[in-house]
Amino acid sequence: MLLLVANAAVLWGLYRWLRVQRQLPGLGYFVLPTLALRLVAGAVSTIRPTDDAWYYHSWAALMAAQQRQAPAQWLRMLAGDEFHFGEQALVFHGYSNTFFFIKLLSAFSWLTGDVLLLQALYLSVAAFGACWLLVRVLAQLFPGTRGGAVLSLLLWPSALYWSSGVTKESLLLAGSALLLASALMLLYGPAGSRRGWWALGAVLGTWLSFKMRFFFGGALLAVLLAVAVVYFASQLGGPWRRRWQVLLLLALLGVGARVAGEISPVFRFNKFASQLTRTYSALRQKSLGRPHVALPELAPTAESILTHTPKAIASTLFRPFAWEGDTVFYGFAALENLGLLLLALLAAADWARRRGAPLPFLVALALLVYCLLMAALVGLSTPNLGTLSRYRAPWLPLLVYVLLAQPTAAGLLRRLRIFTPG
């Protein structure tokens, strides 16, 4: 009975929310089809769930059983790194985002009934809601980029698929989108625009991003804090040339990385580089015989990592190529990557000609730096192209948004009547 009442209440709340969103000028007609696409993607992912999704679901069901039969024991488990129930045990040494994700699924068993499909749909809705919020913010602050925001955050194929369903990427995308939307409103939003709520959203988005993938969330927060410093510095000293914004942003990130390394050994270069290369070596053994990112000389040194970073970034963004692989997955991925390459070339031509864009340079710079950092991190640690495609899903829409916000691509979108500002 509780399950039926709770889901009926959620559906009623979603219905009322959709009624409001449909009234938004120039955006309302996107909400229903894009939500439907996200739900379909989430549902499709449960037809043949990945090993990871089934692993999360199975252990969450056991934790949910413990919640019903021994709630006090379940509550103690939430604060620890071990799960014991009957003859079943799951033990982690230190914090694990996998364990956190499973705990979260079990905590909402009263709403999902331990049904994989319902879990997938709710996680898909969470990702969609945060992305829709970010689209609204971008459309309000930078109206000329509205079409790019819709295409990148709500319709980009690989991100839509991999960040729907029972995946950690669903919540990572939700946290990242919420953090970015809140930060942009705090910096660029009009005075009195419910800043307290946006600050709370930034805290929640930061927490969720950190919980789901520490380095992804940490990098996004670091870039946004650096943006805030550059923004306020430029406000105090008048408009800054672009080169000074670039230099100050990079300098702040460098100083921040050094300070973080002094605070916690996790951020020290030696430990980070060692973990990076060990992860790559372990995963490369499983990828032999299939298309993968080959970095045979990668070593845990600054020189080696810097040398291999360009290839890692290019592989993350543009592989698999059309001639790699012989499955439907590789075919669709190659087609999408070709589109991404064309957008990158158009944007590079615009930047070379210094054409003005509807997106502030500082925002574009920050998102570009963040996405390149993530591309390097993923490419240097993840040789398997399928896994790589999944890992880039939470941040790839931000890169696509920046590329679509450049003058040539933005002009092409404006010529499509569906994206004409209303």
Question: What do you see in this structure?
Answer:
With 422 residues, this protein is mostly helical. The protein has two domains: 2-44 and 118-419, no CATH class; 51-114, no CATH class. Helix content is 74%, strand content 2%. The protein is built from 20 helices and two strands. It has helices at residues 2-21, 28-44, 51-69, 71-78, 97-107, 109-112, 116-141, 146-155, 157-162, 168-188, 195-212, 214-237, 242-263, 269-287, 302-318, 328-352, 361-381, 385-391, 396-404, 407-414; strands at 82-85, 88-91. The chain has a two-stranded antiparallel ribbon. A hairpin with a 2-residue loop joins strand 1 (82-85) and strand 2 (88-91). The radius of gyration is 22 Å and the shape is globular.
Sum up the structure in keywords.
422 residues; two-stranded antiparallel sheet; globular
Biggest sheet strand order reads 1-2
Largest sheet: 2 strands, antiparallel
Helix/strand order, N-terminal first: HHHHEEHHHHHHHHHHHHHHHH
Structural class: mainly alpha
Number of strands: 2
On the 0 to 100 scale, the average pLDDT is 89
The percentage of residues in β strands lies in under 5%
Helix content: over 70%
Rounded radius of gyration (Å): 22 Å
Number of domains: 2
